[in-house]
Design goal:
Number of strands: 4
Helix content: 10-25%
Structural class: alpha+beta
Radius of gyration: 12 Å
Oligomer: single chain
């Protein structure tokens, strides 16, 4: 997934989602050693969006 920030900087992320538990996290492609946990509400909303 590509995120484009307000200053037009584009950053690549990999999204990992468990659709059964609706838990997910992001990994910035340029720093694969660090995972960013998605908050429960955000993770649920993203899982629902991706499942469509």
């Amino acid at each position: 997934m590509t995120v484009t920030y307000e200053d037009s900087k584009a950053v690549q992320y990999s999204v990992y989602m468990d659709f059964e538990t609706k838990n997910g996290f992001l990994i910035k492609d340029s720093n694969s050693e660090r995972m960013l946990d998605l908050r429960k509400k955000n993770s649920e909303e993203l899982a629902d969006l991706l499942a469509k």
